[in-house]
Here is the input.
Amino acid sequence: MKNILKTVAERFAKKPPQAATAENAAENVGENVGNAAENVKEKPKMFDVDTDITVRSLDLYYGTFQALKNIDMVMPKNAVTALIGPSGCGKSTLVKSLNRMNDLIPACRITGEVIMGGRNIYDKDIDVNLLRKNAGMVFQKPNPFPMSVFDNIAYGPRTFGIRKRGDLSDIIERSLKSANLWDELKDRLHKSALSLSGGQQQRLCIARALAVEPKILLMDEPTSALDPISTGKIEELCEELKQKVTIVMVTHNMQQAARVSDKTGFFLMGDLIEYGDTAEIFAAPKHERTMSYISGRFG
Amino acid sequence: MKNTCVEVRPQKSETAAKAVFGFAAVFSVIAVFAIIFFIFYASVPAFREIGVFNFLFGRLWAPDKEFLPVSGRFGILPMIVGSLCVTAGAVLLGGGSGVFTAMFMSKFCPAKLKGVLGHLINFLAGIPSIIYGFFGITILIPVMDRISPTGSGMGILASSVILGVMILPTVTSITKDSLDAVPREIFEGALALGASKEQAAFKTVLPAAKSGVLTALVLGTGRAVGETMAVLMVAGNSAAFPTSVFSNIRTLTINMVLEMAYASPGSLHRNALIATGAVLLVFILILNLLLGLLRRKKRERRSREKPLNIPDEGGAAPAKSYNFRETGTFTRLLKYLSAGITAAIVLVLTAIIGFILIKGLPAINFKFLFGPSGNAGASLRPAFVTTGMLILIALAVALPVGIGAAIYLSEYAKPDTRLVKTIRLFTETLAGMPSIIFGFFGVIFFCEFMKMGVSVLAGGLTLSLIILPTVIRSTEESIIAVPHALREASLALGAGKLRTIFKVVLPSAISGIVTSVILGIGRIVGESAALIYTAGAVVYTPDALTDRGASFAVMMWMFSSEGLYMSYAYGTAAVLLIFVAVLNTLIALLKNGFERGKKP
Here is the structure.
């Protein structure tokens, strides 16, 4: 599967000049985040960036209510970052501002920057659709379209111009395999997606998101509506997927964050209280409030 | 209604009440059966004498020898073809535009505009068919005359356009409701995959609302196939096979309404006209059957695509990479198209209203409204009196029966039993029957079988059947909205079920009942096809319920069909439009007031 990334990268390298600048920008990000934004003058043809996500002094308001307060964090590439905290702390809001789903809420106002591949995704010339293709999302409640399994997964590729049946079949097989769902569903591709179990539906949604080859996968409490067995399957899946995508996951479940993630951020009332390596956060939290939240949950 | 908290001892009055409500509920079933029975029974002589095959597939319609060398030939194939042609045209034009308008209203238009458009669509739905026909002959036909190669604009295209505009409100409002009902997660799921708003709307939300859209189109088809007065004025009416979209045609409904006036009772000609009605009824019943199937729980859908045969190579296949590129031009075009169509519809509506008001308002004066009416000169006085009488008769029958049925369905019957489903199915069937079928039933049953003659009474009773489904539906909706706690409170105080219904439930449901009254009045004021042969088409003012009398729409038809009283026709049209506007405003106010009342 790593081959895909390579071939994609190669192909973009062959496409001067826009693709090349995007590629440069992506490389620059690591060492030179500050100047990267200025380096890219032209809009990249395809928003395909395989990088860290840098959130810089992000404030978010719903009307007059401030839901996120001056958030600064870097979510590393090819790792799982877990966002934890009590209900209403802003963790879901943050994950939704990484693919601009908050744009749909009329009263929502955002200042600050979210930088992917050297580009602030809130810049005016960013194509939101391409951004969302690059940063796939899995929702709290499984939301398969009322279509067949095949059409569900083919939806994204079709949206991005892939029409050939053979290509679609190939992508569907690959996506279902990535989501560990191929063996369960290979004989039921033309059944309605609504006939699947809840856990299968959620993994189908993951497969659907993977079908457009995103570099980032945003998961908003992906297991909160599922049974323990399905939850376990999805957690295993995250382990495998982080080889090729950067995962940001919101979770209510402490154990889940501890099991799955590399980095953990603890949110409270819109503030990022503490952010660091998961092992450290859970073993020796620096803040008292983190400690009490984590131990309270374990307790 | 089950009640576990309080045991209500059934008393005699309670049992009797349940029986009365139950009868009211099955009334619509009886009505549908009566309509089917009497129309088929009255057409048996025609089928027997002409032969079913000759009647259905005969190519020549020549009832008498005034115009043709042959006579006594009754073949309705040209009319069947004509009906199918204009219906297909109307569904294509009006159904298509309706779906696009609904997409625009549900997904693309600003929230403020949405309310305004909703009112406009409701207004469009309330305009009587006679006004659409009138607009057709005064505006559309002169335009079509110019573009038609034959020089005559009447025919399939003109009829399809007019019918298209008429079915548009039905298609739009039902489609819009089902689009709005698609869960938001589906829309957001598509956006999260990188689909544009247009792509998400057209490729995800619209397919998810498929059964609603189909229901809307089938209802629109039913309305188009049964529409009479509007097509009568623009179709050209010659009973020949069409050769182009400008060919004059005659539909089944036109055949019925056009020749009924001079077909003498008991003649084969008249029986053949009733048999035409029977054929139309079969079409309508088939459409209703389709609707019933659509409404049934959707079975698991299987894609028609062939199963995949992918060799399972255990993931060893070399990973091919794909060239993802941004698409969405097509759906963006669809969005602009839906905005354009919506704008065009607003324009057409404004044109109709503006034109009729400009031409009609100057004709309105006291003498025209209330002056004496007779052979020496006509006024709208008979229409006021007749319409008033019709409203009283129709409401006197439909209100008690409709409210009783609604009470039975919501308070007594167990939900989703076979009985309730049957009652609902037949109420829907009754609601979907065309006016002209009611008109013919009225003639056969009230005028002749019950020996009422052509009279305001027969007309009013016919109308009561037409408005019954509206009363049932609208009352039932508001009864269901009454909180259960209110009923429990009343029962807990020791009040019986009957007392609870009349003192607590019905008063809380008053807005729905008033709405149904207003809707019923609107329907009666604009009704023409059902009244011409039941209540009559005369310019005299009726003195008693047994006299003939013409409603506003029938008066307008008389004024315009003779071509001599065009200013009167414009004046009547303006009066009708004002009625529609007033009634629509009342309903909107009532709804607003009701919703405000519900909020804390």
